[in-house]
Amino acid sequence: MEASVAIQTLPEAKNDDELIRIVDEVIAYIKSTGYNYYVGPFETAIEGPYDELMDIVKECQHIAVKAGAPSVAAYIKVSYKPEGEVLTIDKKVSKHHQ
Question: Which of 7, 49, 61, 94 suits 33 as a labelling partner, its CA being 20 to 30 A distant?
Answer without folding.
Answer: 94
